[in-house]
Helix-turn-helix transcriptional regulator (Kitasatospora terrestris), 450 residues
Amino acid sequence: MEQPQSGTSGIGQRLRELRQKKGLNQQDLASADISVSYVSLIETGKRAPSEAVLKTLAERVGCSVEYLRTGRDDARVQELELKIAFGDMAMRNGANGEALQSYSEALAAAPFLSDAMVRRARIGQATAFEKLGQLEAAIQMLTSLFEDPASVPGSAEWTQLAVALCRCYRDAGDQLLSVEIGERAMRTLDGLGLAVTDDHIQLGATLISCYQSRGDLTQAHLIANRLIPAAEQTGSRVARGSVYWNAAVVAISQGRIREALTLTERALAMMAESDNVRHQALLKGAYGYLLLSMPEADLERTKELLEESQEALLDVGSAMEQARNEVNLARLAVRLGKPADALAHASRALGLLRNNQRWEAAEARVILARAQFMSGDRDNAETTLRAVERQLGQVPVSRDHATVWRHVGDLWKELGHAAEALSAYENALAEVGLLALPSRTTSALPSERG
């Protein structure tokens, strides 16, 4: 917080700094009783304003008379610190919009706050943006914080910022940058020779998920094998649960469903004794997804897990996390033969994703199309599928998109459109790097000799 200053020069300096921070010019502070030249004289310390003028100027630059006069305003500082504390509490309770508002209001009066409190509010604001699905805003703020000289490599805060950046880039669909940031942060931690901490393990677990999302399953598996022993020896139950969880995701992608179930069950056991409601909810959703992947799933148990997950995520989860669970609930409704429920869940997922063009939105539309087909509405099912194809044609290649293409092909096949199904299957193969052989043409063949 700014140190107290006395005299007219102190008043003038504070007035000028606050005016400039609000993007105002001297004309904006002038009125019928206060001329522009008088404002200039006050700012240069050549005039001492009266109490009435001081009050008017304080209102226009958004501070108290006490702060403008002395540089101190303990009541205002306390009020702003309470706003930040309320933002922290709102975030823990899942009220992400209220949290964002509190942090933003505190940051609007940043001159009153210490550097540490400003940084805390900015981190909170970035986290709120992420949970609200505003990933571009979150990435911009997190990058600024991560690259700030005040962010010390190897510190808990620095590692947590690296984790958040990896996660945001991953969820925004930029797998290249998510992996690059994670790898660079891991190399930095390894180079510092620090003891493995929970934050270190959490960074590794997030990096596993980034590799998996990029389709680099071998590297994801290698890091999982490296982290599990470290987590067993030094990690908390939450850290160990995160590693098991991400290792399970890799196992799913590699088709090792039974192993994935075992790892997820271990992760749930680790998280069950913690107070991290969000992680428990996400794990229940992951477990439900796994059960849905099995031909002979216990659908009642799956329903219980997914509904418990969604109930908790409504309070503590991000829009993206809620949307993924809605997609799983839509899948379950299809398995149960309830197209109306599938339509409702898929529509809610798309509402949460808004205009996001990620694979989750494409998958939600495939399920929407399937529910329309199950309801006898073939025309809308075909229209929805073509919208999915257009969307998939505009997004980066990934293993997740290959899975959606496969589902598109399956539904075209059920609708009796063989050509469209074949095209979708070919796109699925191309997404995972399995390209067709070049066709032979007459001009490419060697000339025959008699």
